[in-house]
Specification:
Structural class: alpha+beta
CATH architecture of the largest domain: 2-Layer Sandwich
CATH class of the largest domain: Alpha Beta
Number of helices: 20
Mean pLDDT: 86
Strand content: 15-25%
CATH superfamily of the largest domain: Histidine kinase-like ATPase, C-terminal domain
């Protein structure tokens, strides 16, 4: 009876039909991923991608992005300009159609755009929907056209406001504070993306201007331009690594309207760094184009090594992974109708692309190996060394991973485990030093908080062969405590098995000084190189212990930065400036706090500040880790000099 009653209450009146851009405002995450900082920057990518598509079509060679003081954005290009004529079917200006109708645009017409990144046609209309204000200015046909919008709705018809001697589109938008939870653009995020786009589109100039920050010659600005494209991209990524071959191997080819460009270079490092793009979209999960590249590299180098007798003395098989150790490569394909797996466009699914890329790379490598026998020998020797190290690493891994932490027998002696066996509610603190570890053990909540003290600085994995990593006591303890393991799949590729992960919050807790920052960076380098899925799944955090305690009598405040310290002093002195009655304690280490203070400031879930570690750009993250932790000193010195003003160093 009750079931029938429920059914009668569910009728046509319960169905909500969202019209126009209302759906975007109602469910913004479906269109731009999120409403936080990532989604905020995604709005810029959507507008810039339209201009990039004009470049790919051969009609645009300069894009300028300006961040205004109020965090509004203007994107200007010198392309053809969005059409403004009357749309035959919708009886309104084509400009208004593009700005207000989902799945409308020139990208569905293959005569207009042979290839494009924004394939769903929701880009600029979504930006319009999620902006409190947007102004579109189009230069074409000798005229300047303009239309303004508020929350996606036109504030009047398209009008002519002047004469034009150039062509192009100017989009200015203000992200809507009613929708977006973060409204402040980060210069470095924008700059990193535009640098990447310049490498991927040789001959395109991208200018970034930030009106929020003044410099001697005007506003802060940078211009990104690359003549060499992917070759320069690889050299940029490998700037902090010692090169095995000085000049990148460069591959270009076109087959069945699919354009392939690859640049690859070997270095003396131990990690594989392969990054892939389809129509300028970063395909983080790879796909058929990456499969084709790997197939060609494995096949050609294996054949060359066997034909020349390099592998005769080896007592174990060479794996595909061995051919790619120390390899930095960029794979970029332009596909007319790409099929992506998943909504994030993270993996290319076109099966025909595998063979196209494999043939292009294979043919180029065959010529390269024949023409450069000395360099070919250096690469093969590197492969043999990698295979030998991998064989040793497998044995070392098995020794570390033989005991099961779930039995309790294999847990590290230093680990103070929590009583909960549920990973969802359990967290582990990786604490710098035995002293701070002891304080943390006293101050924690034993039900869900585990403590693993780390002695000193862990091994710099950026400069160590894999089998050496498993000899390091602290790293062995991290593996065992977390319950994860590195295994090899059917093709010999290393994968992190997280099925038995024991904690869903892994908190790095180090001193708030330079040494503490160095230790945090060493641990993050290890996670990035060997446990990246833990970062990608949002399990890794950095604790934020306070820098100061400001105290007057029985009153006290914890302060996490200089501004908070000054505000606390001002509050206690009531603005008199008389600091003699105020005591300021600077915490140089976790050990200077007692258990209660450490709990209150850094471990109590209701009060603490944790910074979740995320990877905004995996390509740039790889470059930064290599630069900070690698062999080459000049790039690291340049980075420190550029960022020294942000460091709070005690002298």
């Amino acid at each position: 009876m009750s079931e029938n009653k429920q059914n009668t209450n569910y009728s046509a009146s319960n169905i909500t039909a969202l019209e126009g851009l209302e759906a975007v405002r109602k469910r913004p995450g479906m269109y731009i991923g999120s409403t936080d900082s990532k989604g905020l920057h995604h709005l810029v990518w959507e507008v810039v991608d339209n201009s990039i598509d004009e470049h790919l079509a051969g009609h645009c060679d300069k894009i300028t992005v300006t961040v205004h003081k109020n965090n509004s954005i203007t994107v200007t290009d010198n392309g053809r300009g969005i059409p403004t004529g009357m749309h035959a079917k919708l009886k309104k200006s084509a400009l208004e159609v593009v700005m207000t109708v989902l799945h409308a645009g020139g990208k569905f017409d293959k005569d207009t755009y042979k290839v494009s990144g924004g394939l769903h046609g929701v880009g600029v209309s979504c930006v319009n929907a999620l902006s409190s204000y947007l102004r579109a200015e189009v230069h074409r046909d000798g005229k300047i056209f303009e239309q303004e919008y508020a929350q996606g709705k036109p504030q009047g018809d398209v009008k002519v406001i002047g004469e034009a001697t150039d062509t192009g589109t100017h989009i200015t938008f203000q992200p809507d504070g009613e929708i977006m939870t973060d409204l402040e653009y980060k210069y470095e995020v924008l700059a990193t993306r535009f640098r990447e786009m310049a490498f991927l589109n040789a001959g395109l100039t991208l200018c970034l201007i930030d009106e929020r920050e003044k410099e001697e010659d005007g506003f802060k600005n940078e211009t990104f331009y690359s003549e060499g494209g992917l070759k320069e991209f690889v050299q940029y990524l490998d700037a902090a690594r010692t090169k095995l071959i000085q000049e990148p191997i460069h591959v270009t080819n076109k087959e069945d309207n699919v354009e392939v460009e690859v640049a690859m270079q070997y270095n003396t490092g131990y990690s594989e760094n392969i990054y892939s793009f389809v129509n300028n979209i970063n395909t983080r999960e790879g796909g058929t184009h990456v499969n084709g590249f790997r197939r060609a590299v494995n096949r050609l180098f294996k054949q060359y090594g066997e034909d020349n007798g390099f592998f005769k003395k080896l007592k174990f098989n060479i794996s595909g992974e061995d051919f790619r150790e120390g390899l930095t490569a960029i794979i970029s394909v332009k596909v007319p109708e790409p099929q992506f797996k998943g909504q994030t466009k993270g993996e290319l699914g076109n099966s025909e692309v595998t063979g196209i890329v494999s043939r292009a790379v294979g043919n180029a490598l065959k010529v390269y190996l024949e023409e450069n026998p000395k360099l070919a020998k250096k690469i093969i020797e590197k492969v043999i060394l990698a295979a030998t190290a991998r064989h040793a690493a497998r044995k070392a891994r098995e020794m570390v991973q033989r005991k099961s932490p779930l039995t309790g027998v294999g847990l590290p002696g230093k680990l103070a485990d929590c009583s909960s066996k549920s990973p969802d509610e359990s967290e582990i603190f990786l604490v710098e030093g035995d002293s701070a570890g002891g304080t943390a053990k006293q101050g924690r909540d034993r039900k869900f908080q585990a403590i693993l003290p780390l002695r000193g600085k862990i091994l710099n994995v950026e400069k160590a062969m894999e089998h050496k990593i498993y000899d390091n006591e602290e790293i062995k303890n991290i593996f065992t405590a977390l319950g994860v393991s590195i295994q090899e799949d059917d093709e010999g590729e290393r994968v992190l098995n997280t099925e038995k992960l024991r904690y869903h919050k892994i908190v790095i807790m180090c001193d708030a000084d330079v040494d503490g920052s160095h230790i945090s960076t060493l641990i993050l380098t290890f996670f990035f190189r060997y446990m990246r899925p833990l970062i990608e799944n949002g399990y890794v955090y950095i604790a934020q212990p306070p820098l100061y305690m400001v105290k007057k009598g029985k009153q006290f405040r914890y302060c996490w930065n200089e501004e908070e310290r000054l505000a606390a002093v001002d509050a206690y002195t009531k603005g008199t400036g008389n600091e003699s009655s105020v005591k300021i304690q600077r915490y140089k280490g976790l050990g200077e706090m007692n258990a209660e203070q450490l709990w209150e400031t850094t471990m109590d879930p209701t009060e603490r500040i944790l910074r979740q570690v995320t990877i905004e750009d995996v390509v740039e993250s790889d470059r930064v880790f290599s630069m900070l932790m690698g062999d080459e000193v000049p790039p690291r010195r340049a980075f420190i000099e550029a960022n020294a003003k942000y460091a709070n160093v005690d002298i």
